[in-house]
Each structure stands twice: as structure tokens, then as C-alpha cells.
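Late entry, written up from scratch paper. The run itself happened at the end of the previous shift, but nothing got recorded in the book at the time, so transcribing now.
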Amino acid sequence: MIAALVSIGAPAAFATVVSGWLFRTSAAPLWLKIAAPAVAVAAACYAPVAVNGLLGYPAAVAERNLPDGELLAFVPHDGTRSVDLWLRIGDEPRAFETTLSPQMKKALREALAAMQRGDRVTLHSKSSGGGDALGIGDDQDLYTLKIESGLPAKE
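Output as recorded:
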């Protein structure tokens, strides 16, 4: 994240300083000399944050803040104890990165088995229904899996 801020933000900040110098030496009104570099600084600060979402990098979220959606794929990283989840929320797929807890591992094993059978797996959080609202208890499940059969019914 820091590398993205430096690699995108540093050239944008340099361009802002150059444009500020040009406006300082120009005959433009004072409000324009102040407003244009200020807008450029704001854009330079916002760009690295917006670019990550546009490029499809996973959004880092806490486990209890995962949105409800259809689970499309996942990649667990046991070394860093994190997992990348691709969820379809409405019509838009989105990538999320969260911690890989033992409960999440168990749920992902169940989801993998269901997805290999051709079933649709939907992730639902329990945070809206009470449960552990403060996130203190580590032994409680924060989400449930809803599995829908992808096969047609027998006649």
C-alpha cells in the first residue's frame, strides 16, 4: 500500500508543485492561483486509494465486515494467515482480503466441496443478527454458508 502511495502520489505531488509555481508566476486571479494547486493536491492524495479498487486489487476488510454475496473463488495464504475472496455482490464481482481464522478455513473447506459438486455458495454474515457484535469472542462463527444446488431437480 505504501509503495502504491509513493509510486503514484510522488509524481502527482511533483506535478502539483510545478503547476503551483506556474500559477504563482502567471497573471491569473489570486483565487485561481490557490484553488487549482489545492485541487491538484487533493487529486494526488486520492488517486492511489482509488486506483487499487479500479485495478481489482483485493480490498482489505475485517472478517466481521465482509459483505454478503455469492462466493466465486478464494485463495488461502497460510503463511500470512490471510485469504483472498472473490464475492459477487449484486451483479458486480469484487475481491476482498481478510484473515484466515480456523472458522474461515472450515467454512472454505465446506464451500470448496460444494462448489466442486456444482452448487452455488453464498456467504452470509451473522453480525446483523446479534451474535458477537464487538468481535470479542474468537470461538464464534461470524458468517454462515448458504449452499444452493446447481443441478436440476429429479423428475
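The longest helix spans residues 30-55.
(Scratch paper discarded after transcription.)
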